Structure formats: C-alpha cells, structure tokens
Amino acid sequence: MRLVHRSSFSLLVVLACGALRCGSSAGSGFDGGLGLVDGGHGLVDVITHPRDSGGTILHSGDSSPSVDAAPVDICHVAPGSSNGNAPTCTKPAAPPNSFSPDIKWTWTAPSSTATTNQGSMIIPLVAEMVDTNGDGQVDLCDIPSVIVTVYGGAPHQPGLIYMLSGDKGEVQAVFDGMVDASVTPALGDIDGDGLPEVVANDPTGHLVAYDNKGHVKWTAPNVGTYYADLYQYCSAIALYDLDGDGKPEIIDGFEVTDNQGNHLWSYDPSAWSGSYYCPAPAAADLDGDGLPEVLFGNSAYHHDGTVYWTVDGPPGQPQVADFDGDGVPEIFVARQDGLLVYSHDGQQLIGPTQSFDPGVSSTCWSKPGAVGDFDGSGHPSLMDGSCNNFGVWHVGLGASAALSLAWSQPIMDPSGIASSTAFDLLGRGIADAVYGDEAHLWVYDGATGALEMKGNRSSGTLIEYPVVADVDNDGSSDIVVVSNSGGSSGGIYTNTVEVFQDAQKRWAPTRRIWNQHAYSVTNVNEDGTIPAHMTPSWTYVNTFRMNAQIQAGGDCVAPPANPPK
Fold first, then answer.
1. Among candidates 547, 374, 144, which has minimal Cα distance to 556?
2. Are 268 and 274 in contact (CB under 8 A)?
3. Half-sphere exposure of 237 (CA within 13 A, CB side)
4. Closest CA to 420 of 247, 545, 319
5. Were 403 and a residue from 8, 94, 138, 393 both cysteine, which residue would form a disulfide, CB within 3.0 to 4.6 Å?
6. pLDDT at site 98
7. Which residues contact 369 (CB under 8 A, 6 or more apart)?
8. Residue 359 pLDDT more than 60?
C-alpha cells in the first residue's frame, strides 16, 4: 500500500499509485457579475500519457475488428441501439486490483465574493457539445465536454455554468447569465436540432434552456412550483419523452413542463413539508403501455398527470430495476424512514429498512442511491447510505422479502444527502461502489466493501455524486468529482473539479455521456438525443445511476463473474 500526496489530493490505493505529473495554465478571469476575485480558472493539467492510438479510438473490446464484421460508424449512434437486451461485452476483464489511479486534470472556479460557497455542489454533466475535430459537426468523434454549475448551496443561490474540455479541463464557454446554482440541471436534445441543450433554473425560478454554446434559447414564462418550497430548493431536473411525441418533457422538482418550459401539471407535496429534501424524480414505464410514468417516491403519475398509484408516506428518492428477474420493474425508494421496495403497481414489498443509524431524517436516509450487480451474481443489488454509513444491500423478494446488508463502511456526511453511483471499472462483472462524502471520494469493491481508492475532497453535500464517463474519448472510463468550501468534516477545498483515470488506462470503456441526476443509460442516447420511446432500463442493463460499458460503438454488459449454478 502506498499513499500519494499532492496539495488537494491524497490517493490511497490497495496496490499501487501512478506518479503525478503536474503543470498549470492561467485562465480567462471572467467576472460575470458575481464579484470574482481570482484572476483565472485555475486549471491544473496533470496527465501527459499518450493515448492508446492516434486520435479518437474505436470503443470496442477489440482494437482491430474482424474484416468480416459489418462496418461500425463510430461517430454516430446506431438506430435502435438500445432495443432488447444489451449484448455481452467481449473485452477481457482487467487483472484483479488493477488500480493505479492518476489525476487527468483539475479545474478551480474563480472565487466569488457574492456567494455562500466556493466551488460546486452539483453533479457534473458530460456530453459531446463542441466540434473539436473541425469536421463541421458535433458527434461521437469529438472530445466530450464537462458541464459544471458553481457557487450553489443556499436556496436560490445565483451561480454560473462553465463548460470545460474533457481532455484538459480548459474553459470552452461560460453560459449566459446566472442560474439557480443549487438546482441540478439536465442535458439533452429537447428541440430536435441534433444538438444537446442544457436545462437549468434561473435564480428567480424560471426554467431556462441553453444551446450547446451556452447561449439562452428560451426562458419559461412562469416561475417553477419548486421555487416557493424550501425543501425543493436543491431538486434535480430530468428529461423524458413522456407522451412519445418526439418532444421531451421536463421534470423540475414536482412539476412537469413541455419542452419550452410551459406548465403541464404538478404534484403538491405540501402535506409532507419537511419530510423530504432535494427531490430527484425519475420516470419509467411501469404499466407496460409504452409510455413512462413519473415517479416521486410516494406516487406514480401517467404522462398526462393522472394518478397511477400513491402510497402513504412522504416523497422519497426513486430508483427503478428488476430485482427478481421476472421482467417487471420494482421501485427502490430512499426516504426519511429508510429504504423501501415497491412493486410496479405500488404495493409495498420491503421496508422501511434501516440497517444502521436508526431514526427518522429527511436528509440522512433520503439519499438518492444506485443499482448494479455488486457481487457478480447476475442479479442487481442496491447501494445507498445514511449520515454515518454507506453500504450495499441484496434484495430478496417473494416469501422471504427483505433487504440483506452485504457490507457497510463508515462515511462522514452529517448534512446527509450525498448521493452515489457505481461502475464496473475493471470489466469483471462486479460493479464498484463510488461515493463522495463531505471529505473524501471513496471507491469500494462492490462484492466485499474493500477499499480500492480514496481521494480528498470537500463538500457541504447537497445531492451530488461522482460521475463515471469517458470524458476525453480515449476508450477508458474516468471518475469526475466536484468539491466546494461548504464541508464541515475536515475536507479541504482546493479544486472545483478533479478527473481521475487509471494511469495505464485499464478501466473499462464507457459511454461519453451523463446527462442528468436520474440517469439509467436508456434515458438518453449517447449523442444526447432523448428517445421518444425509451427502452426499459431493467430489460437492457438493469442498473440505475451506473453507466454502461461500450464496445463496437454500442452499450454492452459484462458477463456475471459468479453466475448462478
């Protein structure tokens, strides 16, 4: 075991760490009306490793496809690429314990004298936004961009959105005007022009859509319903085509609008005021009619706002997966009294379960979680945490329905609502658990809970989590984590964004997109288009807040490491 130190970063790996090679460059000194006093964007460009091949590489398990194979258009999403089950990945798994994490780049937002917190409390978004290869179009052969919202924390805190190059962390654009920097934006092509828009709220509560260059396309005429509710101030926006007409709807807290921000319908959570926090709604086709229902944790609504089902209790954080392999989804909900599992039609199957830290808390237990195959069995488990602990639970349904704690680890999140993600970094059929508390980035072996990686960060934690995506199109996954000055658990804020890679680029290839908080792979195509008819994620990759591996220009899933006998 070896410990590597660098000002803002301390990386613990089980076997070895790559050497850090650091440089720096000055920034633009943009002000933007927030009283910025730092002269530049604080870029630290760390990695100088060459790519595995010149230019953009083929995202495939084989570097040299068979001459008999059909040609693959690596620059565009194949039609119907997320129909049926995702194919099995063919690239061999990386050797066990192939962890040599290295910093790819870091970026620090200019400091502001007019904000509660420096840095970011919002998940970064990743997508192809800029024509980086100069061929006249934005597509999958360009370098992705990382979208970062800075200066949030307090209700309706004004902030800025920066767009950074995924390969170096250089500022590509500062979006027009200011946004509500405590709301998590979403990204996707909402108007059919073939380019992603970024949808956020402005500081006065209006939805606003930006084009791929950061310019305002439209501002909604009405103030969002979230704005008057303290407990929604840190909500997350989501994009889904709810009625299948090719025009995505926008879910903003407990409100649904059309693709121009016009109000369609909303859910009134006031009866449960104080019993929920920072809603991150999702949508999934629960009734099998081909159109997704909107999920708020205690209810499901059809696309037109009519009720599908409701349950007694406050809203919670919904995640969708097929936990028993019958082809029908269940809903895993984290809410103030613990973890629950519901059937697709709202029958309570499990919970509320609290395997540690007993008590009712709208922050400690209402944390958005993740779903993945954490033990290599071929069946999904769920991952979540509380204020003081973090763990993975196996899901048993039927006569012995229960959540069984597989392992847990202590964390420091007294503010309570930090979320989590997962990814099979080594391509071995076992997801790694990825989490950021107030002071550290953690990566754990999903099967055992053994520590694989530890990095320093600082955060007052809203519902942000680390994101796993291929941010520089090099065919190897990266971990992107944000930090801010709001933490109270000993974290040290230096860099707003840190991007980690394996120094030998052995981490599995993954998609070049992460478009919203409630991410489930099939909710967005890799080019940022929102499918008119979304393939149920539980029939495709059966994960939630976990990115997919890719090969030959499409998604794939690793075979189970420990298939059932």
1. 547
2. no
3. 33
4. 545
5. 393
6. 86
7. 317, 319, 332, 334, 339, 382, 383, 384, 385, 419, 420, 544, 545
8. yes
Give the span between the Cα atoms of 499 and 143, in whole angstroms. 15
Strand-pair partners of 554: 551
> What does the H/E/C string look like for 168-233?
CCCEEEECCCCEECCCECEEEECCCCCCCEEEEECCCCEEEEECCCCCEEEEEEEECHHHHCHHHC
DSSP string across 28-62: ----TTS-B-SSS--BEE---PPPSSSSSPP-SS-
Burial (Cβ within 10 Å: 0-12, 13-18, ≥19) of residue 278: buried
Interval 161-208: pLDDT, tens: 999 999 999 999 999 999 999 999 999 999 999 999 999 999 999 999
- Condensed to tens digits (0 to 9), the pLDDT of residues 514-562 reads 999 999 999 999 999 999 999 999 999 999 999 999 987 789 999 999 8
Contact 281, 262 (CB under 8 A): no
3-state secondary structure of 88: strand
Q: Which residues contact 380 (CB under 8 A, 6 or more apart)?
A: 321, 322, 323, 371, 372, 373, 395, 542, 543
User: Tokens 């999958």, residue?
Assistant: 140
> How far is the C-alpha of 434 from the C-alpha of 419, rounded, in Å?
10
Cα separation, 84 vs 92, whole angstroms: 23
Q: Tell me, what amino acid is at 529?
A: T
Question: Which residue from 282, 174, 292, 286 is spatially nearest to 235, judged by alpha carbons?
Answer: 282
Residue 524: closest CA among 302, 198, 143: 198
Average pLDDT of the residues of the chain: 88
Q: How confident is the model at residue 552, as a pLDDT?
A: 78
Placement of tokens 């971990």 in the chain: 479
CA-based nearest residue to 449, from 372, 391, 380, 379:
391
Q: Looking at residue 70, what is its pLDDT?
A: 59
Indicate if the pLDDT at residue 54 is higher than 60: no
Reported as a single tens digit per residue, the pLDDT across 124-167 is 999 999 999 999 999 999 999 999 999 988 999 999 999 999 99
pLDDT at 530: 97
pLDDT at 11 over 50: no
Residue 172, CA distances (Å) to 103, 130, 470, 514 in order: 20, 9, 18, 18
- Number of Cβ atoms within 10 Å of the Cβ of 66: 7
